[in-house]
Request: fold
Amino acid sequence: MNYQKLDAALAMALNQVHDPEERSLVVFIHTEPITDASAAIAILENLGVSDINKAKDVFSATLSPHEISKLSEQPWVQYLKLSQKLHLMDRRLGGRSIGMSQI
Reply:
């Protein structure tokens, strides 16, 4: 595995997965310009990535640690980033609404 291509959150998440073959991590795959597009497309399709075209350079997929390891070794993969769940923020701060103050 090429850990230089993994963001910190993904590297930590890999240590918490019990089954290295289970597709349990949602990742963003950032690619460089691909010289051998047919081979790269075949690899991405095999990983379950859809809507692949040469104009895109970021893809998402749910992968296993084993698949992440193999993907990190590909020369056309720039880096892999763990998808984070976003949480809505409460728009109130101390009972007051956040926004423009009245003049």
